[in-house]
Amino acid sequence: MASILILNGPNLNLLGTRQPEVYGTTTLADIEAMCRAHAAARGLEIGFLQSNHEGALIDAIHAARGCHDGIILNAGAYTHSSVALMDAISAVALPAIELHLSNIHARESFRHVSHIARVAVGVICGFGAQGYLLAIDAMRGHLGGAG
Length: 147
Ligand code: DQA
Known about the structure:
Elements lengths: L2 E6 L11 H4 L4 H14 L3 E6 L3 H11 L5 E5 L8 H10 L3 E5 L21 E4 L4 H13 L5
Parallel strand pairs: 1-2, 1-3, 3-4, 4-5
Helix pairs in contact: 3-4
The structure holds 1,3,4-trihydroxy-5-OXO-cyclohexanecarboxylic acid.
The site of 1,3,4-trihydroxy-5-OXO-cyclohexanecarboxylic acid (DQA) has 10 residues, from loops.
């Protein structure tokens, strides 16, 4: 059974109350439950983690080797700043999908820069919590299951 790590970066623990006009009112716990149900219905295993710390996210990416077949990464603001996260994705050589709730290209110009996109299979943004489910389906297709 294929396994996907869904990894969430800084401030995403505050979803539900954080700038709801930008990120919606769905909490991260709600998103995890949606992802677990969506993955289970497709015969996939998932891991679901959040950290506000860059090093912890890097450790989680390293630990994914041998445990997971792909990574869905919403790196939050680290998307725009972290060469170390980009290097971690390259280092483990697992397929990664960059994910954002908001459409980062319709926002401030500093959000148009992504270090993760350089090493990602693809990018999904702008679909809110639904984007997590789209990313699961995209990863499933990439890994050779039905797309
Ligand atoms: C985000 C977009 C980032 O620019 C921002 O820093 C976040 C959330 C999103 O999911 O839309 O923290 O990754």
